[in-house]
Amino acid sequence: MLRSLGYALFLAPAFVLQAAAQTPAPLAGQGCLGCHGSAGQGQGPVAALAGRDRGEIIAAMRAFAANERPATIMNRIARGYTDAEIEAIAAWFAAQPR
Amino acid sequence: MSLHPSRRAILAGLAAGLAAPSIGRAQATARLVIVGGGFGGASAASFARRAHPELDVTLVEPQRSFVTCPYGNLVLAGRRGLDSITHSYDGLRARGVRVVHDRAAEVDPTARRIRLAGGEVLGFDRAILSPGIALRWGAIEGYDEAAAQRMPHGWVPGDGSQTRTLRRMLEEMPDGGVVGLAIPGNPFRCPPGPYERISMIAEYLRAHKPRSKILALDAKEGFSKQALFQDGWRALYGDMIEWVPASRDGKVTRVDPAAMEFETEFGTRHRVAVGNVIPPQRAADIAQPFANEGGWVPVDPVTFEARNAPGVHVVGDANAGTPMPKSGYVANSTAKQAVAAAAALLRGEAPPEPVYFNTCYSHVGPEYGISVVGVFRAGPDGIAEVSGSGGVSPRGDLPEQRRLEALYADAWYDSITGEMFG
Ligand SMILES: Cc1cc2nc3c(=O)[nH]c(=O)nc-3n(C[C@H](O)[C@H](O)[C@H](O)COP(=O)(O)OP(=O)(O)OC[C@H]3O[C@@H](n4cnc5c(N)ncnc54)[C@H](O)[C@@H]3O)c2cc1C
Question: Which of A32, A59, B200, B204 has the most other CB atoms within 10 Å of its CB?
Fold first, then answer.
C-alpha cells in the first residue's frame, strides 16, 4: 500500500503538471494574462505570479486597491475585482508551476 | 515494458475517457469555427485549445501572417521594424487549431455553415466572427482605395503595406513640411490610436525634421486620454502639434490626393506634405448581415452572440452597443468570454458571468508611456464599467511613472501576442 502510494507519487508529476497546466485561469483572471504572461510566468519587467504564495498575491491586491502599495497601474486594476474573485485568481496563480 | 498497476490504471482510465461514446464523444466533435485571425480570432482559438480541448477548432484567415495594429505607430517612429510586429500562425497550429488560409464569403446561421471564397463549406456548432473593421470609402469625398496609396490610412494593416507606405512618406518628406491627419468621429477602432500616432510621428520629426509641423484635423470635440496626451505634447514637442476640433473647423470632408490637399467642413483647404486619412468605419463585410444601421453588430452582453443570429458570436471591433472601446485587449477579453459561453451552451449549461478587461497603453515619446484601464461587467442595463476602478494614468510631472509605463507597454505587447500566437 505504502509502496504503491510512493510509486504513484513518483510517477505522478508528469500527469499532475500536465493537468495543472491545462486548468485554465478563472475567467475573471484571464485579463491578468495580457501583462503577466500567458501562464503567469511574468513578462520582462512585469513580475511572475505563477507559483507565488496565494496569501501574498491576495495581500498585494488588497494593498494596490487601497493605494497602499506603489503602483503605476495595479491600483486602477485591483479595484475592479471582488474579494472572491481575487481569492480564486490568487489560488490559480499559486498552483501554477514557476 | 512492465507497468506498475497504479500507472496502468491511470492509462486505462485515460483510454476509457478517450473511447467513451455518448456525451464525451459528442463533445469531442463539437465544431467551433472562427473567422478572422486577428486580436479576437487568434485569442479565441488559443483560449479554446487551452481551456476547452473538447472543441474542434478551425480558424479561417486569408493572411499567412498577422501584422498587428498595436505597435504600428512605433514603426512610423522608426523605433521598430514591421518584422517585430508580424506573427505566424504556426503556434496556433501546434496547439491543434486547423488554420485555413481563405476568406469567409458567407455565414449561414440557420444551416450553421460558412462558405469560403475558395469553395470549401465549413459546418459549425458555434461560430465566432472577429473580422475587424472595413473603411467607409467615399465617406470623405475623394477618399477611395486609389487615394489610400497617396494618403495612407494605416488603420487596417493587412500585409503591412499601408504602414510601410506611410513610413516611407515620412522619410521622404522635406524638413519644414506639414504632416496632416484626418481623424474620424466616434465610434472607431482604437480611440487613443490617432493620438499615439501623432506622438510617434512627432518623435520622428523632432529627431530628424525638427522644423516640420503636424496638423491634426479631428471630427470630434475631444479624445481619449486627451489631457495626458496634450501635457506630453507640450513637454516633448513644444508647438510642433496643432490639434483642431470639429468646432474649430477640424472635420475633413474632402481630400484631393493629386494636389495633396485636405478640405474641411467650412471650406478651408490645407496643403500637406504627408496625408494620413483615418476614415469613418464599420464592421467588416462578412459581419454586415448581422449589423445595425450604423454598420456595427448588436450583441448579447454575456455571450456576444449577434442579436439576430444565435450561435454566431461576434467579438472584437465588429460589434456595437457596448461602452467598451474597440481595442485589441477588449477583443481578447470578449473572445475568451464568447468561447466559454459557447462551450457552456454546447453542454446545455448557462454561460458564465463575464468580467471584461481593457488596458490601452500609448507611447507619447521616448521613455514616456500613458495608459487607460477599464474593468467591465454585464448588468441589467447591459455592459458597464465597475465604478471606482480603472481610469487613466495620473497627470502631473511624473517622469518615473511615464518611464515605467513605457516599459510595461512593451511587456503588454509581448505578453498578449505571446498568449495569442505562442
Ligand atoms: C494604430 C493602431 C494602434 C492600436 N494600438 C492598440 C493598442 O495599443 N492596444 C490595443 O488594445 N488595441 C490597439 N489597437 C486596436 C486593435 O488593433 C483592434 O482593436 C483589434 O485589432 C481588433 O481585433 P479584431 O479581431 O476585431 O480585428 P483584427 O485584429 O483587425 O483582425 C481581423 C482579422 O480578420 C480577418 N478577416 C476579415 N474579414 C475576413 C473574412 N471574410 N474571412 C476571414 N478572415 C477575415 C482579417 O484579415 C484580420 O486578420 C490599435 C489600432 C490601431 C489602428
Answer: B200
Q: Is B89 helix (H, G, I), strand (E, B) or coil?
A: coil
In tens, the pLDDT along A53-68 reads 999 999 999 999 999 9
Q: Which of B233, B255, B281 is at the close of a domain?
A: B281
Interface of B with A (CB under 8 A): 4-7, 10, 47, 50-51, 53, 329, 332-333, 336-337, 340, 352-357, 359, 371, 373, 375, 386, 388-391, 393, 401, 404-405, 407-408, 410-412, 414-416, 418-419, 422
- Other beta carbons within 10 Å of B307: 15
Quote the number of domains for chain B. Answer: 2
Atom of ligand 1 nearest to the CA of B325: 19
Residue closest by Cα to atom 9 of ligand 1: B360
CB contacts < 8 A (A, B): 114
> Cis omega (within 30 of 0) on the bond before B187?
yes
Residue A93: name the closest of A43, A11, A10, A33 by CA: A33
Q: Which pLDDT belongs to residue B28?
A: 54
Q: What is the ipTM of this complex?
A: 0.91
Is B404 close to A22, i.e. CB distance below 8 A? Answer: no
Cα angle B141-B183-B71, degrees, rounded to a multiple of 5? 125
Euclidean distance between CA atoms B23 and B30, whole angstroms: 11
> Does A7 touch chain B if contact means CB atoms closer than 8 Å?
yes
Q: What is the pLDDT of residues B187-241, one digit of tens each?
A: 999 999 999 999 999 999 999 999 999 999 999 999 999 999 999 999 999 999 9
d(CA B32, CA B227): 43
Positive or negative torsion for Cα B188, B193, B199, B202: negative
Q: Indicate yes or no: CB of B389 within 8 angstroms of CB of A45.
A: no
Residue with cell 476614415: B279
Residues B296 and B366 in one domain: yes
